Amino acid sequence: MYKSILLAGVLAGFGGLAIAEQVTVDPSSKPSAHAVILGQLSITDGFARATLPNQPVGGGFFTVTNNGDADDRLVSVSTAVSSGGEIHEMSMTDSVMKMRKLEDGLAIPAGETVVLKPGGFHLMFTGLTQPLVKGEVLPVTLTFEAAGEVTVPLAIKAPNARGSGGHSTHDGH
Amino acid sequence: MTFQRKHYAILGLWVVALIALGLFVWARFAQPGYQNAMADVIGPGDYELVTTSGESFTQDSLKGRPSAVFFGFTHCPDVCPTSLGDIATWQEELGADNQIRVFFITVDPERDTVENLKDYVGWVPDAVGVSGSPEEVEKAVKAFKIYARKVPQDDGYTMDHSSNVLLFDANGRFFEPVGYQESFDRAVAKIRRMQRG
């Protein structure tokens, strides 16, 4: 009984954290931030993960802050090395991974920061025509409903990189 | 207090003590027995799959050396590459003489043939990919108590699947799972504990 209350509390705490992470900027990610500015949007910390041999899809991540007073929305994504680009939401429920394509794109509310990161929102590049190689840069074209189009360089990191700054393959611990 | 009351009080204390002893014995011996029963349930089945090194993969394949089993698919941009990357770093840490075997079993046999999986997992030390007919993969999914479900999307489909890495000891018995993004240190400690037996 107490255990389940405790568990519920811990889960609620995690839920709160997950929500908080979407609207706050992790100060530790600042140093690598060379912001790409598009209208009221500021995009930082872009990275992709190197693909494994024969991996037909790739993942991309970045942080976007909407400094304006109007909501915006990421509606499409493309690269020169993939036939398609999708915006995904990933969730983990009872250790089961679920991934869904966001058909209506990803909302970037006024005054907020949205983080695309492993385990959460991400870009998925489908039909890759060449592998994504660690150390190289992948230019990705993002289209926002209001702000328009911009090309953002994504630094290609290790296949299990947790963030744009990490160079170690196990920087999670 | 009459003699009789005192007698009952002592008897009551004895009952409490015996219950406590019983609970202790149950917790110490019976509960691990229950866990052992679970260990025997995860893994065994009549699936027959094929590995990227050309061997068949059955319930007996887990015997002989400790192994890690992970279910995933190649059309997966996040969890599967992360997990394989993590497993590769465990192997580096364990060192060439103490590495465990790694079986990457696809939950998407329609797209992941043994041929496709060869290079996908080939860079991970001591790892093989495992695929087979959809029916046999389905049997393995059930045998390992894995959740896997095909989810249609407008331009194809994706897969929901369990993200735990399952550890099996040298006797082919389920040891413990390693959760997705469980810390590197904890994962390696778990494997070493399994190797010590």
UniProtKB/TrEMBL annotation, chain A:
Keywords: Signal. Residues 1-20 form the signal peptide. The keyword Signal applies. InterPro entries: LpqE-like, Lxx211020-like, PCuAC_sf. This is Copper chaperone PCu(A)C. It comes from Neptunicoccus cionae.
Automatic annotation (TrEMBL), chain B:
The keyword Metal-binding applies. The lineage of its organism: Bacteria, Pseudomonadati, Pseudomonadota, Alphaproteobacteria, Rhodobacterales. Disulfide bonds join 76-80. SUPFAM superfamilies: Thioredoxin-like (SSF52833). Residues 27-196 form the Thioredoxin domain. Gene3D superfamilies: Glutaredoxin. Keywords: Copper, Disulfide bond, Metal-binding. InterPro entries: SCO1/SenC, Thioredoxin-like_sf, Thioredoxin_domain. Belongs to the SCO1/2 family. Pfam families: SCO1-SenC. Cu cation binds at residues 76, 80, 161. This is Electron transporter SenC. PROSITE patterns: THIOREDOXIN_2 (PS51352).
